[in-house]
Specification:
The structure is a single chain. 75% of the residues lie in helices and 0% in strands. The protein has five helices and no strands. The model has no long low-confidence stretch (mean pLDDT 87).
Length: 129
């Protein structure tokens, strides 16, 4: 086994120390609390719910998907996104299609970072009980 292969194997199996784990948990808690604070601001109308991005080619792609003659393509994409997230999607509007796309993207590249969001959402829902 080559030295660089051995080093890569070590990195893959290195789990860190207890201090690293505690630090990660603190960071996760702070992240969840930050999300919860922003959710409260959104609920109170102090922060907008909207997201925006400046991307001409992507804007053109989404605009084309909105056209009636491309409904089959739009529905296929929406179904694939819904399947990936485990939700039913029926005739999504532009906003919902974009939100689903963002969720799938974040899930793909930062799935573990979405767990604090889920926790914050559960806590927010429990406040209403």
């Amino acid at each position: 086994m080559a030295d660089d292969e051995l080093e890569e194997l070590r990195e893959q199996t290195d789990h860190g120390s207890r201090l690293d784990t505690a630090s990660d948990e603190t960071n996760r808690t702070e992240f969840r609390e930050s999300i919860a604070e922003h959710l409260s601001e959104i609920d109170a109308g102090e922060r907008q719910k909207t997201l925006s991005a400046w991307d001409g080619p992507l804007a053109a792609f989404v605009a084309a998907l909105e056209e009636d003659q491309h409904a089959d393509r739009r529905e296929a994409i929406a179904d694939a996104l819904g399947e990936e997230l485990g939700v039913d999607v029926n005739d999504p509007k532009k906003s919902e299609l974009l939100a689903l796309t963002l969720r799938v993207g974040f899930q793909e590249v930062a799935g573990e970072d979405l767990e604090p969001l889920r926790e914050a959402l559960r806590e927010d829902a429990a406040k209403g009980l």
